[in-house]
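Thread title: Can someone regenerate the structure for this chain?

I was given the following input by a collaborator and told the matching structure tokens would be attached. They weren't. Posting the sequence so someone can regenerate them.
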Amino acid sequence: MNSIIENNQFNEARVISIPHKKSQNGDQLSHHIDLPYYVTADFKDIENDIKKYKIFMSDNRIYIRRKKDKDEDESYYFQEISNFEIKILQHIQDEKFPIKLLKVKNVFNLEKIFDIPSDLFNTLGSFENCIARQGNFLFTGNALDFKMLKSYLFDKMGNGHKIDSLGYQVGFKFWLWNNKVNLLNGESLAIDENGIFTYNNRSFYVPSANKIYFNNMSAFLPQKKMIAIESDVSISSYLQMMMEVHKDYSITAILFTISSIFQDIIVNEIGNFPILFLYGPGSSGKDQLADCCQSFFGIPQSAINLEGGASTLKGQIRKFAQFTNIICHLSEYKRGDTKLDGTIKGFWDRRGYEFGTIETKVSTDTVPILSSTLLTGNEYPESEALISRLLWLEFQSKAFTLEETKNYDILKDYTKKGVSHFTDTLLMHRSLVETTFKSKFRQCKENFIPKFDVKHTRVISNLAVLGSIYDIFKDLIVFPFTYNEMIKHFEKCTENQTRKLNSSSISTKFWDCFLASMRGIKDDRIVVFRDLRLDGNNLCFQFTSCYNKIQRQWMQQYRETAPNKAALQDYIKKDPCYLKEVSSIKYEKGKNARNTSGYLIDISKLQIQDEIINAIEWQICEQLAQ
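Best answer:
Regenerated them for you:
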């Protein structure tokens, strides 16, 4: 027999005899080991641990071997050195931040699964601090005992890879939700309650899927929303309902969303990815359409509010690195912030931000852009470079009918049920996108150049991305629109976008010259109560007299000829600040004031509103002083 188990008469310990070696006369010598009587573990399950490590675990405790004093027969006993059991579920290798995923359970059946930086497992003091933070977990062994425990745990631990960014995993060729793994072939893997799964004989750890963070509202909140949700809503029904509610705006939104699922392929081929811009007044349906797009990736992520300034520019970029191939929403865009405009342009170009490291004086790391951008706002950009990078959807304010409101609520209910299972289905066609996108994109670009009267190649490139995705999936998905309807919609979008491209620079220059002419020399100045008057936010000005002065200021300020009068009139009438043309208005005060025509605008929609008001007040004070 390999071992003999006996109960002593006091029932305080089990005496174990383990064959050790033979004496010179051939007799078998044994170790005699006393096990505490309350140890319930079967000896055969812990025998190898005792022989190799002089340590074992049972009944939520750790035991270590001690030698009895001056015993000639080499007898030992086991001492309890903790009130918990411990296991290293995984060592997570990382160049800079290796961690160990631990599982501990104490004698009160309190169980915790948590990760700690790997170097905190090197010394007894740091180890005790880590486990004490989790609750009543007490280690009473000495430094030598801890060294033996490390040897025991390290030999038994698993090795794995930690995944911080959910979505498509480029190196491993699968899509990771926070609640399952999509293998891109119609099959999936479960993630256990500890956030662990095994694929191709390799273990992976997903911190956000660990049950210890389930009720923690501050930890991994965005990742917890990215889940695969099954529902009885079909993709054809959902897309059709989007069209009924949001009309042709849905064409761009649907194709942008599907493109985002495969954006790493697109970026690899063309070096950039379109930005979807939903522009228009409040309550026009922008936010619901944004939610529809984001629902393909689980529960819609919270929008980053650009107006509030709560998130720094670097913080916004980090948000785009939390996931791979999903959509991030930037809301409440406000024009006039050149740094913000530059950052958004970087999202199209896929430029993250770099930061220095301590390895060398010149080494840097990069926070990448891995998600696509959905931008919403009541204002539109003035930068030509940013406008040309956008997929332009211009919403109009309208009163919704009872039928439209009913459809809106139905779509909202569909979205609440969950539609991320659509993405699981679409991912099965990833290899098709990989093999055909490049040729489809080039063909669409060639076809679109003569169709759309746009001078910016970025605009055509953005539309070609959507067109190629339509061409790839048109036989796999029942789209609620035809190719011709898509082209007609693109024509409308590019007309609006071209108008903004043409007016953005011209309109800005016009109002800058308008303001400068109000402050100019007295004989060549736009004069209050002669050329203009202000009532509240309503500014009325006589266009011809103002244009004559602006024309000269334009040449002086920009060293170029101002657009002709008719062209500028057209730009002003298409500007959001324009209200109407007034046929008869008095600019002067008094009985002898004559009636004349003018343009009425809403000054609150001008970026330089305060400067114009100050210039008007300054002129009035000057007139009163005279």
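The first strand starts at residue 4 and ends at 7.
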